[in-house]
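Long-time lurker, first post.

We've been arguing in lab meeting about whether adenosine-5'-triphosphate would sit comfortably in this protein at all. Half the group thinks yes, half thinks no, and nobody has a model to point at. So I'm putting the question to the forum: if I give you the sequence and the SMILES, can you give me back a predicted structure of the complex? Inputs are below. Any interpretation is welcome too.
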Amino acid sequence: MLNLERISKTFHAGADRVLALRNLDLFLVESDFLTIIGSNGAGKSTLLNLIAGTVLPTTGCVLIDDVDVTSMPAYRRARMIGRIVQDPLAGTAPEMSVAENLALAIKRVGRGLRPALPRKLRTRFRDQLAALEIGLESRLNAPVSLLSGGERQALAVLMATLVEPKLLLLDEHTAALDPANAAMIVRLTESFVCEAGLTTLMVTHNMEQAIAVGNRLIMMHKGEIIHEVQGHEKQRASVEDLVDLFARRHVVDDELLLERMPEPATEAIKLPL
Ligand SMILES: Nc1ncnc2c1ncn2[C@@H]1O[C@H](COP(=O)(O)OP(=O)(O)OP(=O)(O)O)[C@@H](O)[C@H]1O
Ligand SMILES: [Mg+2]
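Top reply:
Settle the argument with this. Predicted structure of the protein with adenosine-5'-triphosphate, as tokens:
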């Protein structure tokens, strides 16, 4: 479904050359849910940006459903890719209302045009927001800028999956949230992904999360995949196993930026407006 073949990416920053990805191969079948962990600067975000088309590879190619999209511009790929990044401000149009953001997500278009909102659509959005169980259904008309970080990321998850994407790319999408909200977003993400069988790549610094979620896990370091586990082996893996594997590559804790898995949330904490 997703095929990355011999991908390399070199960045030129002034006189410096950074080899962000080195001859990387990755193949995902439909409904694979891949978690990605790795040291700081390992190339995780570059990998996701390359799939999204915001970064072009120096060598190699990207295929989605056997179509070579290597040089397809990001705006055209956006129609088949749902994407959420760390910053809750990034995924939504803050000056627009919750309902208007959802309407934009249906069309998978950029920000700017205020879409018309027939009553039927508002009712549908209200039901979909109610299913998130965080009270957003009563805030359809609120500008997104008034929502808390957790509420915005929950909206971003809904927006990214409203029209089923071929691929869902999550780049540390819970990292900026407090533990209760992070747990709520992980729960939502898992339920949306599993329900629709979405093919998903999720970058996280939280090793417990990387083990608990999804069916495959890769470890990256210095632009390479240094280890992969899947299925039963993944379920049985422990954080200590993964840290050990990194230690064998002389990757220290500081580079891994480890976080603890947030406690399961019974109710998301809402930040004051
Ligand atoms: N636009 C760019 N120009 C120059 N160098 C870049 C650019 N983007 C990324 N890099 C470099 O490429 C390497 C990989 O960066 P990347 O952001 O993919 O790492 P990462 O694994 O996501 O790290 P982190 O865990 O810190 O988010 C780093 O050394 C980074 O400095
Ligand atoms: Mg990154």
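For your lab meeting: The CA atoms of residues 91 and 115 lie 17 Å apart. Residues 1-43+56-72 form one domain. Whichever side wins, do check it experimentally.
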